[in-house]
Design a protein that fits this description.
This is Small CPxCG-related zinc finger protein. It comes from [Clostridium] ammoniilyticum. There is one protein chain. The chain is α+β, with helices and mostly antiparallel strands. The chain has one domain. The chain has two helices and four strands. It has a four-stranded antiparallel sheet with strand order 2-1-4-3.
């Protein structure tokens, strides 16, 4: 790695993970906060208001943030 590569790598923030749980099968997973943020923005633009749902990788059911 060059010095500029090391410097750029140190400037990248680590993801904050948000715990989500499938309402259908109970699978729990950690999702990066930037994904939740992008989906929330898409929902806001499309006039959908409510909690962001992500598709469960196990059963394809809705996953929601654990509170």
């Amino acid at each position: 790695m060059t010095d500029s590569t090391v410097k750029n790598a140190s400037m990248i923030a680590e993801d904050t993970l948000i715990e989500t749980k499938c309402t259908a099968c109970g699978h729990i997973d950690n999702v990066p906060n930037w994904i939740i943020g992008e989906l929330a923005e898409e929902d806001r633009i499309s006039s959908k208001h409510g909690e962001v749902e992500i598709e469960c990788p196990v059963c394809k059911g809705p996953m929601r943030r654990v509170r």
